[in-house]
Specification:
Length: about 140
């Protein structure tokens, strides 16, 4: 499994590489940075190497799934949501272990609607749902 790179106009989030160990070590030895950490002890180079390797290992073992579920379970803004539907290719047991997800009670009753990119959703009778003079178009 490859860690994805996320890019916006202002930021690129990418996985650490071996080339990042030395610059990250320099950052993690600065007092101005460390004062924001729970333990302000500077990290030695070997520990930074282990940190980078550990992140790669964690991704290989868990992907984003574990982090996602921890957010869903602990985020106070999500506590009022009564149902969350989760789709996974092969991690059903990982999510069940958290005790917050279970199999669908009646999967034969569920349907999914997929819209092909670049097409408009169908409407009853096949007519165009918006008027030509609609200013929102």
């Amino acid at each position: 499994m490859t860690i994805p790179t996320l890019t916006t106009t202002c930021l690129t989030l990418r996985p650490f590489t071996e080339r990042d160990v030395e610059p990250l070590h320099r950052i993690l030895t600065q007092d101005a940075i460390l004062r924001h950490f729970p333990r302000p002890d500077p990290l030695d180079l070997a520990r930074v190497e282990r940190l980078v390797a550990g992140q790669h290992r964690h991704w290989e073992e868990h992907g984003l799934g574990k982090w996602l579920i921890e957010c869903v379970v602990t985020d106070p803004d999500l506590r009022g949501i009564k149902q969350i539907l989760l789709a996974t290719r092969d991690a059903h047991e990982i999510y069940r272990r958290y005790g917050v997800f279970e199999g669908l009670p009646a999967p034969e009753k569920w349907l999914i609607r997929r819209q092909v990119q670049g097409t408009r959703p169908a409407t009853p009778g096949g007519s165009d749902a918006t008027r030509k003079d609609d200013p929102s178009r």
